[in-house]
From TrEMBL, chain A:
Pfam family, one: PP-binding
Record InterPro entries: ACP-like_sf, PP-bd_ACP
Superkingdom, natural source: Bacteria
SUPFAM superfamilies found in the cross-reference section: ACP-like
Domain Carrier: 4-80
Official protein name in the record: Acyl carrier protein
Automatic annotation (TrEMBL), chain B:
SMART domains cross-referenced by the UniProt entry: PKS_KS (SM00825)
Organism field: Thalassoglobus neptunius
Pfam families: ketoacyl-synt, Ketoacyl-synt_C
Keyword Ribonucleoprotein on entry: no
Gene Ontology biological process terms in this record: fatty acid biosynthetic process
The protein, known as: 3-oxoacyl-[acyl-carrier-protein] synthase 2
CDD domains: KAS_I_II (cd00834)
Gene that this polypeptide is encoded by: fabF_4
Keywords per UniProt: Acyltransferase, Transferase
Family annotation (SUPFAM superfamilies): Thiolase-like
Similarity remark: Belongs to the thiolase-like superfamily. Beta-ketoacyl-ACP synthases family.
Enzyme Commission no: 2.3.1.179
Amino acid sequence: MTPPEIRQVIIEILERIAPDEDLSNLDDSVAFREQMELDSMDFLDIVMELRKLYRVQIPESDYEHLATMDSTVTYLTPLLKDA
Amino acid sequence: MLDELQDENRIVLTGVGLAAPNGDSLEEYRSALLAGKSGVQPFETRYIKQPVLAGICHFDEFRYQKKKERRRGTRAGSVSIYCANEAIRDSGIDWENTRRDRVGVYLGITEHGNVETENEIFEISQFDYDTKVWSHHHNPRTVANNPAGEVTLNLKITGPHLTVGAACAAGNAGFIHAVQMLRLKEVDLAIAGGVSESIHTFGIFASFASQGALAWHEDPAKACRPFDVNRNGIIVAEGGGICTLERLPDAIKRGAKIYGEIVGYAMNSDATDFVLPSASRQSECIALALDKAQLSADDIDIVSSHATATEQGDIEESRALKAAFGDRTTLAINNTKSFIGHAMGAAGALELLGNLPAFQDRIAHATINLDEQDPRCDLHQIVANRPRHMEKVEHILNNSFGMLGINSVLIVKKFPAEHGGVFE
């Protein structure tokens, strides 16, 4: 997948786990938590969704890479290049 | 009378919230019961190949709950949140200025957690049973206090909460626990009743089917037939019935509208069988509740029966009622399951609440689908198919029994209108 495609995947996951949020003005460089009501269980949902969709295993030590949209896409690009 | 009105051991119902398969409010539900309107429908359930019927609720899940809260929680939690909010709104309590640490939430449940466990097992089956895709939400969704806990999260209640696991006696048990906690002054306001999400677990249908106790009829509205010789089992339903309960002096002080006073209750155990009921213990339970209420059997005007439309259950309860009430013709015996099916943990609560307006209109709603009464259910007071006008309705007795031989009886008395009774 290309970075724009990965971004779209993340948007769709966020739409499912935070259905009350308006994501149209999401700033990709700002932490998700500063723009949305997301707690640790929600972040685990992002990890779980990626695991289910693409069999991607994200170790806990790498969760910090999921802070913003930009960092998430950067982190996932090599992992999903063949997806 | 004035001193009696200051008696802090007197507990009254002051707000009603409910979700039934045939109504989302007391007004709608009561109208449906008087009109003979069923809430039983065809239902899709996982794995089971035969057609299944169920009592399905249609309340708006998002009236009081965000989509995200609903996604995180359970159907039982959602039913509970809807009913609890409706009850508080109906009660007229100044919720913004209510001390939330003095509010208790006590909800009866038949079972909890089966729905989520079945869902997760299905989910991992799609991934070759890889437990790494087992949801981290499973534990908070399946802990036994979940429905009551979701209510506290939603309403920011910091007082005690718990569920009362009492099989199908649970609706009454929730109210009984609230009465006890209010009398002990553990809380000043109780939000209590019973809830069920059971139709969302295939296991309950499969288990009743294996037991030969799952009802079916080509016309869903005719499927649940308590006391009828052609009954063929249980219709499983979901739902909730939750009330606000207060000590009488508190209720009077704030000018509450009072639906009725819980004057008697009892619970006991058969200690005889996992599944089969016992008429002797049921009639003892009725006698205990009457004794606690300082009433005689002749004081009861309506008996809301538990009968589930299983042969053994209907016959045993009929024997218990015969022993307790004899053949007095001024008594009305009715049954709500014939309309909505068996709402499990919510059954006792919903069945009581649907009868409360009889304090006002003096009408005992019917037991529908009673075309040919089973002669072994030798009761002459069953309100068959059409509502019955009563000379008076002062006391309603509500039966609710469950597996493992758990029995519960609740007696509610009409409250005088001049002191806040909502029914004149």
